[in-house]
Amino acid sequence: MNAADENSGRFDAMIGVGGIGSGLVLALTGNHTLGREESRSCRLLQRKDYCKLHILAHYVHALTDANFHVIPIGAVGNDAVGEELLLEMARDGLDCSYVRRIPERSTLFCVCFGYQDGSGGNLTTDDSASSRVIPAVVEKAEDLFARHGPRCIALAAPEVPLETRETLLNIATKHGCFRAASFVSEEFHNPLSRRLLENIDLLAVNRDEAAHLTGQDAKTPPEEVALALSAWAVKKFPKLVISLTAGVCGSWVLAEGKTFHLPSLPVTAVSTGGAGDAHLSGLLAGLAAGLNLECSHWVGSLTAALSVTSPHTIHKGIHCRALRDFANEHQLALPPAVITFLNP
C-alpha cells in the first residue's frame, strides 16, 4: 500500500451511532458449556464493561487532537446507570449533545461470562434504550454530516437497529463522508447487513465475524481467513478496506487485493474484552491524523495491545504518549510517520 493513499487526507470529526451501556463480567466455575437448566457457581470480576459506541468514541477522542470532534449518537435510559455513563463520557471529553435519555427504557446492559479455558460469551438486553435509537434520531443530526462533509468519519457500530445504521450510512454517503462500520457475527446472516456493505469504505471484523461473512469454518487458520476475505472483497466490493483482528495471531489490513499483517505484540493480557474495538479506534485515529493504512494499522495494533493490559473494556490510560512509551518499552521499529503521530 502506498504511503499516500486516497484516505490520507485529514479528517476533523467522527460522528457515530451504536450502543451505549455497561455490564458485568462473570468467571464461571468449571469448563463445560453451560446447560439450559443448569445452575452454576461463578465469581463476579471487578471489571468495568462498556458498550460498542462508548469504547470506540472514547479511544478515538483520546488519540486525536483538540480540534477533532467526536460526536456519539445514541441513547441511555433515565436511570442511574445512564446518568453515570453520560457524566463519565462528558468528563472524558465526548460531545454528548446527541445522546438522549429515554424514560421508558433501561440503559443497555450486558452480562459477559467466561470459562476457565478463556472462551466465553455474553448476553445483551435487546429492549434497552439503545434499541430505540431509530432512524429519525440520526436524521436530526444530518446538519452535522453536512457541516463536516468529506472531512467526517461516519461510524456505524452494533447494538442499535440495522435500519438506524443504514440511515447513518446513507446520510454519510450523501455528504461524502468516510464510512466505517462493524457488525456482530449473526448480523451477517441478515440481508440488510449485506446491502450495507455497499455503502462502507472500511469494515472491521474479527476472526469469527469474517468466517460468518465468507461462509468459512470458524476453525479455519486466520492466515487462510485473511486470504479468503481479501479474495471475497476483490470480487464483491473491490474498493472496500477490511480490518481483520485475530487475537494472538495478530491483525491484517486488506485493500485492493493486498494484505498487510502485523503480529500480536508480546503483552500479558489481563482481559481481551474490547480489544477489537480498541484496534478499530486506533486505526480510525490514525486515518483522522492523515496516516496511510499501513501506519494507521500500527496505531490500531498498539492501541489493542495496550488495551488488554487493563481489566476494563476501556483502558483510561491510553493516549498517544502512552502508546509511544509502550512501543519504546517493546523496542518496536515503528514507521517514521507513526513515531511523529505518537509525539504530538
* SSE arrangement, N to C: EEEHEHEEEHHEHEHEHHEEEHHHH
Quote the distance from N terminus to C terminus. Answer: 25 Å
Largest sheet: 9 strands, mixed
Strand content bin: 15-25%
Sheet with the most strands: spatial strand order: 5-4-1-8-9-10-11-12-13
* Count of DSSP strands: 13
Total helices: the number is 12
Please give the share of residues in helix: 25-40%
Radius of gyration: 19 Å
- Structural class by sheet pairing and helices: alpha/beta
Mean pLDDT: 93
Given the C-alpha coordinates, what overall shape results? globular
Can you characterise this structure?
This protein is 36% helix and 22% strand. Strand 6 and strand 7 form a beta hairpin. The chain has 344 residues and is an alpha/beta fold. The model is unreliable at 1-9 (pLDDT under 50). Helix 1 crosses helix 9, helix 7 crosses helix 8 (222-236) and helix 9 runs antiparallel to helix 10. It contains 12 helices and 13 strands. The strands form 2 sheets. A 9-stranded mixed sheet has the order 5-4-1-8-9-10-11-12-13, with helices on both faces. The chain starts with 12 loop residues before the first strand and ends with a helix. The protein has helices at 52-63, 80-91, 135-139, 142-148, 162-174, 191-196, 207-214, 222-236, 275-288, 293-307, 320-329, 336-341; strands at residues 13-17, 21-28, 42-50, 69-77, 99-102, 108-114, 120-124, 152-156, 178-182, 202-206, 241-245, 251-255, 258-262.
